[in-house]
Amino acid sequence: MAIAKAERLMNLALCLLGTRRPLSKRELRGSIEAYLEAAGDDAFNRMFERDKDDLRELGLVIETVENLDGETGYLARRDSNRLPPIHFDAEEAAALGLAAKVWQQARLAGAASGALQKLRAAGMPEAEDAYEIQHSALEPRIPVHEAAFEPLMLACRDRRPVVFDYRKSTAARPEQRHVEPWTLECWRGHWYLAGWDRDRAAERVFRLSRITGRVRSRAGAFTAEVPDVSTVRETVEAWAGETATRSAFIRLRSGCGYPLRARALSVRDLGDGWDELEIPYGHGLDAWLVEFGPDVVVLEPADLRADVVDRLRAVAKG
Questions:
Q1: What is the pTM (predicted TM-score) of this model?
Q2: Helix 109-121 to helix 90-102 angle, to the nearest 10 degrees?
Q3: Quick one: which of 39, 264, 281, 309 has the fewest CB in 10 Å?
């Protein structure tokens, strides 16, 4: 089955690339044997639409053109599907190799590795072994364990609205969210989705690990303007607690909470196995502090302490 589909996709790509004028579905069906064998028009239409989407997913630029008679035709212009010569020096090749390694634990590992092999086959120089030896102890990784990552990545790329069930840290049950996804950002080992929440008519950020069930795509265009990349990244950082607006004081058990200690503005030994830390206080700090459980006690401000207590009570209730 896999070989038959690969052959069918190859034949369709060759037809679209080899024509000088748009070919209708009727003409394509008569040119490709697998389409002739389809059991009826409905089966052919479903097969053709899937094949067309698969080719576009693989990077083939397919144009849809309507002729004077109103019939829809398809073609893939060679100039639109031909890359200019690409040249990399040794440092650029090393950077690409390092970037490919970043995705070794993610679903993009195969795509990254395949792209690197194609570039090397086209003459891109190999990264020097000296770089590998000097940096082998520090190999970057971007872990992607959430099933929602891949469908959301594709939805961000294609600008498709999505629907998913989302469980907030303070909620016992998930609720359905209708979102126009903008971009995905990794912060402190967690993936976040920034986008437009249609139900709340506002910009929102969602942590992927709190998405339950399947991400479903929806038809239609975005209703809100997509901001530039830098603005979205700042939004993710702010919602995740990166952007601090004031300071908070906490008690932290000695020998614990090293990420908190790394961000501390000051540390004071309280004795009895506890330290007092002054840390930047931004949106999302309460959710982060809850992760440290009984090793952290919030001293001030009062609103942060109340938020942490509310989250801990919600966790205790299940």
A1: 0.46
A2: 160
A3: 39
